[in-house]
Amino acid sequence: MSSPRPALPSPLRVVNLGLEGFAQDLAAAGVPVVQVDWRPPAGGDPALAGLLARLDARREQIDRANDAAIGRVVDGEPWLVDCVPAGDALGLPARVVLHAGPPLDWARACEPMRAAILCAIRYEGWAADDDAARGLVERGEVHLEPCHHRGAVGPMTGLITRSMPVFVVENRRHGNRAFATINEGLGKVLRFGANDETVVARLHWLAADAGPLLGAALRQAGGIDLRALMAQALRMGDEMHQRNVAASSLLARALMAPLARAEGATPMLERLASFLAGNDQFFLNVAMAAGKAVADPAAGIAKSTLVTVMARNGTDFGIRVSGLDDRWFTAPVLMPLGLYFPGFVADDANPDLGDSTIVETIGLGGGAMAASPAVARFVGAGGVAEAMRVTEEMREIVLAEHPHFRIPALDERGTPVGIDVRRVVETGITPLINTGIAGRKAGTGQIGAGVVRAPLACFVLALEALAETLAP
Amino acid sequence: MSSPRPALPSPLRVVNLGLEGFAQDLAAAGVPVVQVDWRPPAGGDPALAGLLARLDARREQIDRANDAAIGRVVDGEPWLVDCVPAGDALGLPARVVLHAGPPLDWARACEPMRAAILCAIRYEGWAADDDAARGLVERGEVHLEPCHHRGAVGPMTGLITRSMPVFVVENRRHGNRAFATINEGLGKVLRFGANDETVVARLHWLAADAGPLLGAALRQAGGIDLRALMAQALRMGDEMHQRNVAASSLLARALMAPLARAEGATPMLERLASFLAGNDQFFLNVAMAAGKAVADPAAGIAKSTLVTVMARNGTDFGIRVSGLDDRWFTAPVLMPLGLYFPGFVADDANPDLGDSTIVETIGLGGGAMAASPAVARFVGAGGVAEAMRVTEEMREIVLAEHPHFRIPALDERGTPVGIDVRRVVETGITPLINTGIAGRKAGTGQIGAGVVRAPLACFVLALEALAETLAP
Hints:
2 copies of one chain form a homodimer. By secondary structure, chain A is an alpha+beta fold. Chain A is built from 15 helices and 17 strands. The longest helix of chain A has 25 residues, at 197-221. The first copy, chain A, is extended. Chain A starts with 13 loop residues before the first strand and ends with a helix.
């Protein structure tokens, strides 16, 4: 006699794997059910599952091989070292056209690919028109070959012929090199299958002027560290396929001085270009003047409680309020909290200093921390959560969200802008300010960077003055 | 007789506002309690609460005034238009030193402020050394004044004297102008109270060379739209107080061609500089060559299932796998899904095309979408959640997280890198690729941008070949 089946636990609780129908039936019957989105490996294909099982039997060997392979990808040290004609760089002979992707027969090529191939043949002067060019390809007198077979890569149609200049990237970790053409820009360009005279004219300019000059500049510079530049660009919103604005700007800035040097420009231009390339905070002063320019017209509006100036002189923190003309309301500055350069500690710091808080006055700086998680390491625990928290907190004391300064990480919500004296006093939340930290001893210079609060007292004084202006 | 008090509801549930002690007592007694962090307005100060109440009585008038004031802040159109000596721009006479913050008596100035003031006096030649300079200040023969009183702003000590060049920002919406000095860079600089000969020498260079050249370039350029530039930089991780790397790079790129023109550099340099400034995708080809350079050394490792190449020729999608040498595994390309330029629709699109997928092969592009929420609008609902979801999904099919390519929005977690043929076949998840879209008719060029999947079939073919290499 078989033993009785054990009773189901009560109340019944179910975890359902895979097909949702079972879960739906149970849920309809009032049984709590957790649905797990499980699918059988390889979509349930038995042949593929068998192949996977065969590979699984060699798992350790494969893992070791993969560790070696991925190790070589992530330890690569790509440097942009030169720009030279493809004929030289790739050993590319006449009458060879490189194209993107795997090998391709002319008969199977899509229209933009065909248009680009014929245009490249015209550009090289191997044929006078598309018909003649097509004849060369069809008779095998022009040979098609993937870029990848020559260590090169091309965007879209990816065409490379011998006179086109290519960038040379050297992997300094492993000693190998790879190549790509100069990006042609937007609009009608060869890589998208455009083929008119403007396309050909641009290709000639790239070969005659741009390529040689870029090559000379890169050799002058001794190469540019692309891993560092790409890591930085990734931090700046580029994924480097559809968006390259950060990487392109960083590269342009890095190339300015070498280009000036290579082209024999004046030493003045070259030195200024080097100065621009070496100063990540160059824009701060421009942002400040922009802040002053946009805040000033908001001053002098009777009854307005908007803060139009916040500024520190190292002794006092002062604010001005729109409805209170040019009056200053001051309180002693506070000490910034921050991170210090090696060799310095908090005791070396000067109290809060500078007009740069005009940036916070117009909806940037501290209140825009959510756009800049890297900066949040100066405050509290740091990271994304802290950055979001700071921006959220500043929303408590402002009048608006900025319609032009929007933050992708907040799904395009605007930065908090327009500090309201009433809200600061009411909530006790004071503006948070991102700032550099000066040494308190004369002659020291910058010793760190951090955050500081505006002192509440100057907002209280302004509030009192506002109440007076409203007196009957 | 009073009516009986209604009984407390049972079970008792409590929301406690303010002082946590009550909530703690109730919680200790087993009563469910929600604690609300409430504080009385103005920290409970009765005088301040009274002031706030007085302002509240005029709420409508204040709101109208504030709407006008904040409107003027957010509609500002700051343009960087010139760089000229402060004497000219601010009408600044000799023996006046502008400083940051509210008005400041010498007697109350902090050390870095004093050091900078004396250094500025030496720089201007009004005194030969610090002692003589201090005498001038103490006798009132040099006058101190806030930058803000002259429409200017200065970072940290914020010093401005007449011969220093200042940037001129014009608010084209309201016609006013504001001013700030040129940022001196890092290290020993006047704004942080450094005062040695290197500081003075740099100030002389800024006045003699950098300022005039920047001014000439800005006049040449007809000004630079700072609101657009700042909005872009905010999207690139700058909050523009402590972090200005994006804004500085964007500005440097924008200044390259005008600087070359102003300095009479060769037309070749000027045209190349314009080309660099006008092409946000300039870096794509460089990223691709970098991708090829770092992927190539991972090829040819026996038994490795790592994908080392993904590439499209407009007809076929091809991959190569480390353990399978140079063999191509191909399948027909798929159609990208995306957004189209005005005048084009999905029917005009060519199938997937280009070697640019090398970028996805090394851990950028589609898999790095979380770094680039703006790009996620091309896929599904778009925005931050979609961007995060794509990066999460790609983690399912890769071997590693990139140790150098890290994403601030993920608290510095690395991008997914190293596509594993086994994982693709097992999960049925294929690599997501960000891509441009070409018109399918010859000569059209680019018509949009979007996303596309790699076809599963080429991974299946590769898996079969891998299983063969493992056959006993």
